[in-house]
Amino acid sequence: MKAGGLGLAAAPALAACGRGFGGGGDDDSGDGVTLNMVWWGDATRAEKTQAALDLFREQNEGVTIEVEYQDSGPYQDKLATRFAAGDPPDLMAMRMDSLREYADRDALLDLNEYADDLDLSGLSDNAATIAEVGESVYGVPAGLNTVGFVVRQDFADQYGVPIPDGNTWSWDDLAAFAKAISDASGGEVYGTGFEAQTLANILVFTRQRGENFFTEDDQLGVTAATVQAWFELINGMRDDGGFPPAGFFENIGGSPDQSYIAQGKLASQIIPTNNFLGYNEACGGTLVLLRMPGETQGVRRGQSVDCPHLWSVAAASKHPEEALKLLDFLLNDPEASLATGTTRGVPANAEVAEEIKASLEPDDQAATDFLIALQGEDLPRSLLYPPGGSAVFDFLDALAVEVEFGRISPADAAAQFIEQAEGAIAE
Amino acid sequence: MSTETAVMPEADVPPAPEQGRLSAGRSRGRRARRDRAGYLFLLPWFIGMLFTVVPFFASLYLAFTDYNLLNPPKWIGFENFTAMFRDSVLLKSLQVTFVYTFVSVPLSLAAALGVAMILNKGIRALPVYRAVFYLPSLLGASVAVVLLWRYVFGLDGIVNAFLGWFGVPAIAWTSDPDYALTTLIILHVWTFGSPMVIFLAGLRQIPVMYYEAAAVDGASRWRRFRSITLPLLSPIIFFNLIQSLIASFQTFTQGFVMNDGGGGPANSTLFYNLYLYQQGFNQFNMGYASAMAWTLLVIIAAFTALTFFSAKYWVNYDN
Question: What are the residue boundaries of the structural domains of chain A, listed by start?
């Protein structure tokens, strides 16, 4: 019995070591080069990606590409273990918030050293340097993205509440709109709802107040006052009835079909704009895409052009030239982006983005226009998260729920957050 | 029959010593060959052990290092272990795990024993009932059931609909930090099948004559349960208790699936193993995670030892 306990207790540690055995080895037969490419996503994205890879293969005979993809959660674990086992993929999808975890430990290829193989001239400054650490660049955007507010036109019409001007509306306008919808629907529909702990949301609010969540020298930039104001903003709307009560947001999965706005329980919510097509379809084509509130009232702009999905090359890759060639193809060849569309966001190469726009569905075109317009404006730069950043968001997540259920005041939660976050970054 | 059993072993009996050196050498060779066959049959187990023993000791080494998965581990002595005492999230995860274990283990064992006693009443179609009650245990820790559970206990789920008939306002069973762990405990109690089947087997071993004799003496049903069933079943209870205790300390899937790997809401379902996993894979602190794994091993060993020690006061082996 005891022996059984011993073996089982060590199981987590075993699992840690056991998973790295997956992944494809380098099986070079003849002159051929085998690239291993991994990314996260679903079957639709897989189909589109495969179409682009087929084109690449036609042009580059002798290069075999082994593709592996999975959901974003397990993807993270698998990537870490692949590196730990000394068998990293050649080309990989990299999350912006984990880039530094790898880059700071010399696991990724510095793309600046391969400027001849990879052409970044078609990218905006922000996009080309989004994964810059010091003098080095460790990733390029697979697609550009931002957040936007979607509002259901049918609810606005039904309850006779006009939708505010999306380019100039304030957080107060949002609160007033939300309350009006909730009141007019008799509590059937909540005017708005989003999670306080979702990073993309609070980042916008933080920038509007003139702060960066993390500073360029890897310190915590957000102040307790801002975190407190964010919690109070949401608490205020909740007390008004415009925002759903505590516990409303359950774990319902991330697909647009399952979303509260598609279920008709919310009249507005925040989405990543590359999902606009999916959400609008799920809502029967009734959505209007607005900018985030508070963009013209804040100290500075809050929206930024982000890149949730970067492409990186492993420093230990045996075929960096071929991997970069593939990356260059995905980034700069319009044919590649015609095949993939905006599944990972708007193509980072502005010319390519313009070129493929006409071939996109109207909703994808709308989202692309939304992003291209933003990209032409003077926005704050989006910064990478320092190593240890993920722990910071775990703290925020837990505290946001405590505030939601009234177990702690916004002021106390903000103070605790700063203390915990500073501790985690200092480590 | 008897002649067979008498003859059979003789073929395997080693030659008597007086047969001399030559045959002794031959017998050694034969034994070696026979042993080789045995080891050959054990080979799968040895290969399996390799995948267990090597990581087992590797994790012991890593527990004393700073290891981020990407760079070679750096020896830091006991630092991981001392850091655990300052980690408030770790203490929270310990609290979650202890509450879960000490509430759900007794409840699920009581449920298992209760149902086993009902099924032991000589019900017709017993195999069917046994299978039906066992089914949840097959599924209990699976992702599908936890997902199903999420809907049953969702805001618009069956449970709230049922409570609504009695005027109870809707409860956010899975997203309210006050209820999320309770929901998982109910899920655990529901999966009482394995101990139930073992209890059922144990109950059938108790001779009916004891109950008949007690009934003749006028013993009440409760008295018969307390004085016959419990003592005679105590070795089985002991076995089930140890099994459940160890499994419960290592709970992972329920907390992982319920809130997409987060242990939320507000860390209320952050089981120790879930936090260990987060440390190792999300935050790249594999050295710390290894230290946590070994600490859990010590905790489980301590509680198992305590249970074994207590056994002599309540487990009855005299049949």
Answer: 31-144+307-374, 147-303+388-426
